[in-house]
Design a protein that fits this description.
Layout: H1 4-27, H2 29-36, H3 38-55, E1 59-62, E2 66-70, E3 73-78, E4 87-95, E5 106-118, E6 121-126, E7 131-132, H4 138-146, E8 150-160, E9 167-170, H5 172-175, H6 182-190, E10 195-196, E11 202-208, E12 212-222, E13 237-248, E14 267-272, E15 282-286, E16 307-311, H7 320-328, H8 331-336, E17 343-347, E18 362-367, E19 376-377, E20 380-382, E21 389-397, H9 399-402, H10 433-450, H11 461-479, H12 500-506, H13 537-547, H14 559-566, H15 579-583, H16 605-619, H17 623-626, H18 635-658, E22 662-664, E23 678-680, H19 683-698, H20 707-710, H21 735-750, H22 753-765, H23 775-786, H24 808-826, H25 834-856, H26 858-861, H27 865-885
Parallel strand pairs: 7-14, 16-17, 16-18, 18-21
Antiparallel strand pairs: 1-2, 2-3, 3-9, 4-5, 4-13, 5-6, 6-8, 8-9, 10-12, 11-12, 12-13, 14-15, 19-21, 20-21, 22-23
Helix pairs in contact: 1-2, 7-11, 10-18, 16-18, 18-19, 18-21, 21-24, 23-25, 24-25, 24-27, 25-27
Length: 893
């Protein structure tokens, strides 16, 4: 008897034999081979069915990658050739809240992405491209073993195509996780913990191009403890949009160019373990475009491929020509490097059939926000291995133009709140020039209105045109690779900055990469250009270094010519100081060079700062009559008044930077005969700066405001989101608080350990025959200036509460003086010289004796109550501090 299984088995064998006979008769051996491959073909067919089933009915987009979108799945097809390849991944906050630095257009992260197969999974890897060694060497293997990439996620292989070997992975769940850590950013910006609500988060769009793909993701974040957030309908739930941009990191004919610390380029730094350089294993390349001559033999030639910027159709029509001029002004610099029409500007038509998200197009985009943050920035896509710029998009905030008259809040603390939401984002993408320029323009318009040159609220179109042209020119400089140069303003003498026949040729500054102030002339002088209209000599020099074609085969062979160019750093028009030279790395900048500064102009920053303060003094009495249109509320007067005080603050800080200052030059041995890399500011200049600091800030001369003005400083009375009625605990203007902050900030700088140490060491650094400024002189000056009332004679009518011996402004400042000097004596900050502690003790002792003498004199008998009480309290505080000095453990002093 036969079992059913045996029957079927014999039937199958018979069927196979019959097939073999047929195949042999019609195809010979080929038929046998096809039959032998039948099980494998059957498996492939099953796999193909699986692959096809996965993507069946999906929306398909083909480009750099093929993507399939279906319901809750987004499948990414990875070809075998795309595994282990490098791609650039850029994360951008595309949809923000419009407030508190959560603004659309800001970069979040950028890294090198690669996909790696591991059995039945694909690894999503963030590469570590910063360490390298020569290929094929033992050191290369050592580097591979020493430094790790980061695996961000693992994704299961959903299917493998049997013919192409393509892998299918579902990336939707990963994209909908909190990849950009926006929950952390929200906590920093809004003050409460937010968590991702995956159910309400979704892919908003998908764009696929030949050289890049763009994912848009809308994230929903929720909290159970919301704060009031203006502009949000319900702060319990916020929506943020992120763009993920992926492009292939392709090899090109680009030759990297080595950096030099004397020139101002952004750079990429790689640690090369096979380098034989004894000083540093780092290899540094500047960031620049791949620009090559169409005719290499010509002195000046058009490029093979120009740098094309498209003015996006989001830019208001009335501003497009100004934007175009800001782009094209850089062609002047490229001519020195040997290129004609290196940059081309085009206007995107409204019916354009291309998308600005395509990396093949560089764009100038107009964006909107509720709360101005940066004014303009220039994000660029850069090869981190070579420094080649691949594409760029410049973003201009609409509010920086619309709000040109409004005071910009961040000028109070311009560096302390830089990108708090995204502390790890690449710093080179950030620029505050637009916001600073807006403040400068507001001040200039206020002054012109107060002088009667303009009616209130009128902004001349040519003024706005020049404003936008300079702003765009600055940001284009960034996406050409250039850093800020805060020494560019030293180009002209003070008497020459209002000579348009000169500045139209050379610029107001040697570099448009400076934060150039609006060049407002004093009332009795001719007015020159308000904004710079061309790139300056430093810009031309930089483009020559970065883009001049050099006949060489390797970056190293270019060094002889590059060093010749860089050695021109000693020319006055090539003076260079950038962000770290100006702001350092602390919240309160205490960097040494007072000429590396923003919003100054001319080779005499002290004189320029005094000029600006005098303009503010000129404007102040005219605020009520001339700065407010009839029928308008007084909130504009409040804004204008605050703008003037902040202009005083910022320019008196220029004075403060000269005390304990050192001029710094970026130079190498052999550059500039007789010049030194560092030079102490002469004692005469330090005394000049201190005298002006006392005159315009420490004394009350400027702060004698008429009651008619102070009683009109009322805020806006609108009470809705977007209004600033409740932005302060006080509705009246906090006059004492603002003035004390201005004075205290200057005093803190003068007593900072770095400043005190530089003054102490200046005595050793001063060249023979030159006088040094001393700590003893500084401390004596501060005591005498801030407590000058102690040596003054009483007025004929004596003192009263209305006419006190010491004003309320000065009493508060003197209390701050005592506080800072006691801290200096009892608990000095790290790095404070011991001599400074001793001098603090001596200063307080001297001051105590002066106060005793005044209180016991005939002057003291006639003091008003508050002044006497203030002096009595100060005397006691000093005494207790002096006693405490000898009670503190010696090792903590």
């Amino acid at each position: 008897m036969c079992s059913p299984g045996g029957f079927f088995k014999r039937w199958q064998i018979g069927w196979v034999v019959a097939c073999l006979m047929i195949f042999s008769s019609i195809g010979g051996r080929q038929g046998i081979e096809d039959l032998e491959d039948w099980p494998r073909r059957t498996k492939r067919a099953e796999e193909e069915t699986t692959f096809d089933e996965r993507v069946k009915g999906a929306e398909v987009q083909k480009g750099l990658f093929t993507l399939y979108r279906r319901k809750d799945h987004l499948y990414l097809e990875i070809q075998p050739s795309q595994l282990e390849k490098n791609f650039i991944m850029i994360l951008t906050l595309e949809k923000g809240l419009g407030i508190r630095d959560l603004l659309g257009g800001l970069p979040i992260d950028e890294y090198v992405l690669t996909f790696r197969r591991m059995e039945d999974k694909v690894l999503w890897i963030k590469r570590n491209p910063y360490f390298r060694a020569a290929k094929g060497t033992p050191v290369e293997r050592a580097v591979e073993h020493a430094f790790s990439d980061s695996i961000l996620t693992t994704l299961p292989i959903e299917a493998e195509h049997p013919k192409t070997g393509a892998l299918l992975i579902d990336i939707q769940k990963y994209l909908l996780s909190d990849i950009p850590a926006l929950s952390f950013a929200l906590q920093q910006a809004l003050g409460e913990e937010y968590s991702l609500n995956k159910d309400a988060s979704h892919l908003s769009y998908l764009k696929v191009f030949p050289e890049n793909i763009e994912f848009g993701v809308l994230y929903n974040y929720v909290t159970s403890k919301p704060n009031y957030i203006e502009g949000l309908p319900d702060a319990r739930s916020v929506e943020l949009g992120v763009r993920y941009s992926v492009s292939e990191l392709r090899e090109t004919d680009y030759r990297p160019r080595l950096a030099d610390d004397r020139v101002g380029y952004f750079l990429v730094a790689l640690k090369d373990f096979s380098s034989d350089n004894p000083r540093s294993p780092f290899v540094r390349y500047i960031i620049r475009w791949n620009l090559q001559k169409a005719d290499p033999t010509a002195t000046i030639s058009p490029p093979k491929k120009p740098i094309v910027f498209w003015v996006e159709n989001t830019v208001p029509v009335e501003y497009r020509e100004a934007v175009r001029e800001g782009i094209l002004m850089w062609n002047k610099a490229f001519e020195k490097a040997g290129f004609r029409d290196a940059i081309v500007a085009k206007i995107q038509p409204d019916d354009a059939d291309w998308d600005a998200a395509d990396v093949r197009y560089n764009t100038i985009r107009w964006i909107t926000s509720s709360d101005v943050s940066f004014g303009g920035i220039g994000p660029a896509r850069v090869n981190p291995l070579t420094g080649e710029i691949l594409d760029a998009d410049i973003l201009i905030e609409n509010e920086t133009v619309r709000g040109i008259r409004q005071y910009y809040r961040r000028i109070i603390a311009p560096r302390s709140s830089t990108f708090p939401a995204f502390p790890f984002q690449p710093s080179f993408n950030f620029c505050e020039f637009g916001s600073v320029l807006q403040t400068e323009a507001s001040f200039a318009l206020l002054a012109m209105t107060a002088r009667g040159d303009l009616p209130p609220e009128d902004v001349p179109p040519e003024f706005v045109h020049a404003y936008i042209r300079e702003l765009v020119g600055h940001e284009v400089g960034h996406v050409l690779g250039l850093r800020h140069n805060f020494k560019g303003s030293l180009l002209h003498k003070l008497e020459d900055v209002n000579r348009p026949e000169l500045t139209r040729q050379t610029g107001l500054s040697s570099s448009i990469m400076d934060y150039i102030p609006v060049n407002l002339a004093p009332k009795d002088m001719p007015q020159g250009e308000y904004f710079t209209s061309t790139v300056g000599p430093w810009d031309v020099w930089m483009i020559e270094y970065g883009y001049k074609p050099i006949d060489a085969r390797t970056p190293e062979e270019e060094l002889v010519e590059l060093r010749k160019i860089a050695s021109l750093t000693v020319l006055p028009e090539h003076a260079y100081g950038t962000d770290e030279d100006t702001f350092g790395w602390s919240e309160e900048p205490v960097t040494p060079d007072p000429t590396s500064n923003w919003s100054d102009l001319s080779d005499d920053p002290i004189a320029w700062a005094e000029r600006r303060i005098q303009i503010a003094q000129e404007v102040l009495p005219r605020l009520i009559d001339r700065s407010i249109p009839e029928g308008e509320g007084y909130e504009l007067l409040r804004q204008n008044f605050h703008t003037l005080l902040m202009m005083i603050r910022n320019n008196t800080q220029v004075f403060a930077k000269f005390i304990g200052g050192q001029y710094m030059r970026r130079m190498h041995k052999g550059d500039g005969e007789g010049l030194l890399p560092m030079e102490v500011v002469p004692a005469k200049e330090q005394r000049r700066a201190l005298e002006l600091l006392n005159r315009y800030l420490f004394l009350d001369t400027f702060f004698q405001f008429p009651p008619e003005l102070l009683n009109r400083l009322s805020p806006s009375r609108w009470a809705h989101w977007g209004s600033d009625t409740f932005s302060s605990a006080r509705l009246d203007y906090p006059l004492h608080e603002v003035i004390l902050e201005m004075r205290a900030a200057a005093l803190r700088r003068l007593l900072h350990p770095y400043v005190l140490s530089r003054i102490q060491e200046g005595e050793k650094k001063m060249l023979q025959g030159k006088e040094a400024y001393s700590l003893a002189e500084l401390f004596d000056f501060l005591r005498a200036a801030i407590w000058s009332e102690l040596s003054q004679k009483p007025p004929a009518g004596g003192y009263s509460e209305q006419s006190p011996f010491i004003s309320s402004f000065r009493r508060e400042f003197q209390k701050e003086f005592i506080h800072q000097f006691i801290d200096l004596m009892l608990a000095p900050a790290e790095g404070t010289p011991e001599d400074a502690r001793t001098l603090a003790w001596a200063t307080l002792t001297h001051l105590q004796n002066e106060i005793r003498e005044v209180l016991s004199s005939d002057v003291g008998k006639g003091l008003d109550l508050l002044s006497r009480t203030h002096l009595e309290e100060t005397k006691v505080r000093i005494q207790r501090a002096l006693e405490a000095r000898f009670l503190v453990r010696a090792d903590s002093l």
